Amino acid sequence: MTSPPDPLAHIRDLFDLDDDVVYLDGNSLGAPPKAVAERVQHVVRHQWGRRLIRSWSEGWWEAPERVGNRVGRLVGAAPGQVVVADSTSVNLFKALMGAVRNTDRMEIVVDEGTFPTDGYIARSVSELTGLALRAAPPEELDLRDTTAVVLLNHVDYRTGRLLDMARLTEQVHAVGAKVVWDLCHSAGVLPIELDALGVDLAVGCTYKFLNGGPGSPAFIYVPKAGQSAFEQPLTGWTGHEVPFAMAPEYTPDPGVTRARVGTPDIISMLALDAALDVWDHVELADVRAKGLRLTSHFISLVEDLPGLELITPRDEWRGHQVSLRHPEAKRIMTQLIERQVIGDHRPPDVLRFGFAPLYNTFADAERAADTLKTLL
Question: Quick check: is 93 catalytic?
Answer without folding.
Answer: no
